[in-house]
From TrEMBL, chain B:
InterPro entries, sorted: DNA_pol_a/d/e_bsu, DNA_pol_D_N, DNA_pol_delta/II_ssu, PolD2_C
Family: Belongs to the DNA polymerase delta/II small subunit family.
Principal location: nucleus
Protein name, UniProt field: DNA polymerase delta subunit 2
Nucleus listed as a keyword: yes
GO cellular component labels: delta DNA polymerase complex
Domain DNA polymerase delta subunit OB-fold: 48-174
Domain spans labelled DNA polymerase alpha/delta/epsilon subunit B: 196-410
Gene Ontology biological process terms, A to Z: DNA repair; DNA strand elongation involved in DNA replication
Keywords: DNA damage, DNA excision, DNA repair, DNA replication, Nucleus
Organism, scientific name: Paramormyrops kingsleyae
Amino acid sequence: MDDLYLENIDEFVNDHNKIVTYKWLSLTLGVHVNQAKQMLFHYLDQKRKESSGSQLHATYLVSGKVAANGSMSHKVAVVREDQLEDVKSKMDITVSIHVYSIQKAVLKDSGPLYSTDYDAVKENLKNCCKYSAIRCAGADPLPSDVPRQSQEIAPVAPLEMEAKKSVVNGGTAAANKGAAKQQKGIMGMFNKSTSKTPESSKEVKMEENEDTATETTKSKPALKVHNFFGKPATSKAGTSSEKSRKTIKEEAVGSQTSHLAVEEPSTSPLTAEIKEEEAKSSNAAGKKHNEGKSNKMKRLEQCDSDDEKFESRKKKRRRIKKPQLSSSDDEVIADSPAAPDAEAPTPSPESKVKEEPFIQTKVNSEGKRRKRRRVIKPRTFVDEDGCMVTEKGFESESYSESDDDFKVNKQPLKEPGASKAIFRKNEEENKSQKRATAAAGKAAKQASIMGFFVKK
Amino acid sequence: MFSDLAVRKEGTLLCPPGSEGPLFERVRPDYASCTERFRVGERSFNRQYAHIYATRLMQMRGILIARAKQTWGAGVLVRRLCDLKVGEQCCIVGTLFKNMELQPSILKEISEEHNLLPQPPRAKYISQSDELILEDELQRIKLEGNIDMPEFVTGSVIAVLGAENNDGIFTVEAFSMADLPQQHPRLPLTSDRFVLLASGLGLGLGGSGADSLLSLQLLVDMVSGQLGDQGEQSGAARICRVLLAGNLLSHSTQDRDSVNKAKYLTKKTQAGSVEAIRLLDEVLVQLVASVPVDVMPGQFDPSNYTLPQQPLHRCMFPLSTAYPTLQLVTNPYQADIDGVRFLGTSGQNVKDVVKYSSMDSHLDVLERTLRLRHLAPTAPDTLGCYPFYQSDPFIIEECPHVYFSGNAPSYQAKRITGLDGQDVLLVSVPEFSSTHTACLVNVRTLECEPIVFSSFSPEDEEENDMNVSH
């Protein structure tokens, strides 16, 4: 056993100014706890003998039997060095004494000791008892079972069905979430409209739940779901865009965007939509919006008849939507931007289709719930003719879970069914959700100049 | 005692590192859980609560009559209330009802003619003017005489010997409780095995500072064998099970204000219990990696309010449920560990009896409930419980060897014996967040020892308090 550890402890204590507890040392150096304790003692001893001037303070752990209120009790205490002898003398039997920690500064209270141990344990949760003196035979963690994953499938499915985002709102400052949402919407549309097998979607979900960035070039549905859930969509275009669902947590989206622009022409509307979505996600910063739009345009041109069918379907849907929306002021104004754009041969009309705010849960390691939702916000950009256009579109916004409970309640309302029926439902929900975000909507309404265009 | 066990070897840790550290095997006990009676499946609250009392009396009547004949002779007359004759000495069996003036009554509160403000919560609701009434299946009669009124609570089933007088009041000469039920004899064990009982960890915002969290960390380290010298570690390897008896979260995590506040104020806030449960999960994962743990819900934990509390849901503990050693159990909890029957609650039943009787010591209340053969006599009167109708699961049918209740203000333990030779260890487990004390029960000898964890803080310089902690 070489004495390298002495230098290590020296480094930790003096250079990094850390509080070195036996547990932290044991986990850091990967040694048995008793050895760690002995190492600490050795180091302390050596330093004291050297008396090189650097003051070291230590805390000890004392445990033993004490008489308390007429009965015996076992006491375990962490004490400072100066209290050690005192505490020892009060014990009838001393069971164990060892060094608990070494640090440069004098500790007034034991809070920092706890935080050091807490950090050490937090990093090593899986093997926190690896170096302890007791081994328990029955305590082996089970591998994560499929049953637990299957619970994830259930909530995903209704979400899929609900979110019918056919159109990518190019201008939305989409984080990955936005893209994922819309991809989900696309998936939903895909399931209903083209009535491709639900099995494929399920199979796709299963793949998603396999939880690895499996870049399987499976069927397109599979592809889509991979994108949909934000898994790396390498199979799509050979690009390794790291859109993992977990990256919902990350706000920084823009990275993968531009490669997605180079998409192979797909023969299915979904692919197109997903590309659009990816383009949408690429517009996270909003700067790339034009590029995205032009990309979309390109892509749309590349699309074959299926896409047109899809678009016509979308247009049909839009038409269905409009009468429903006309009842509310918000929707009228929001609709009007859609109307003129419908004529324009740009993909931007798709962006005007209302999508219900899609809520996704973002769970980070602290267990907080931050969700993203889509709200209508005005967006100003220069379009291809060199004209400044302000239009309203859905943008992703982060908010926390207690907000807008009723939105969440609406999610279960949606069930797989006729696409139109669901679309209508979605419209109604959109309406109500719009009412919920009336403030934002109204603000956008006031700022918009689209009224001008409508008159024309 | 644990300390004696642990001190066998000499201290080895105040020296330079030597050989590889020792590795002790955790003892594995035989474990059988008997909590099916406390599981509530399909819950329907459409029933009246009166059925519990009916079935309680029905189940206890036979036992009490046998006990009465045993105490007062086989020739004692046992009468129903409807057959009572004035002046005739007889024995009647029924459920007690204590009529308390100060008992909060919702009818009084909402009644407009009284114009009462809601009563503030009190420590005790007893007063001098209370009355004891005995009820059987059909009638009720007031009791007076040789009966200690302040000590009894509503819902206890007893037998009284006496006579009815002219006023229609029954004058009590003596009373008898059901006393301890039958007990299975304990199998003799060859070696010492320990079960650690702890309760009231009180995790969560405001519940415990870093100091008290350090004590909890010391507990976890000691049990998992990281703390202490070899002797202590080998002693800790004999701890075969850990029982956490409720109140794992602190009271402050139950923030009811968020319901009343406006949405825009509470938009970004998160319930206090979310962070606390995460902390609990991290503590548990360290424990379950090394020892089987039973977790009971308590008054402030995210479980249902009515007794019997159902186990906490496993989805709250993503890290710990990976280990098969974690057991989420009901409150009350009953299990056979190495042939020793453990029965206990998280303390709600005991605290409720303390509120409505003159008894203060949790240990005395424990004894009283055991002798009454009922875990929670005040349920459903003042303690919330599920409307059972077929049988009352709180009746103690088999005498436990260790009977505990959690979240007591201080540690107390006692050994009692029953009329038929039963031998029971009563333990009132103290609240860890305030006392930093846990209990270690030796299942071989049925002895209990408290373990106190302490750390240092600025005000300890002069004190050096060796007893219960800071």
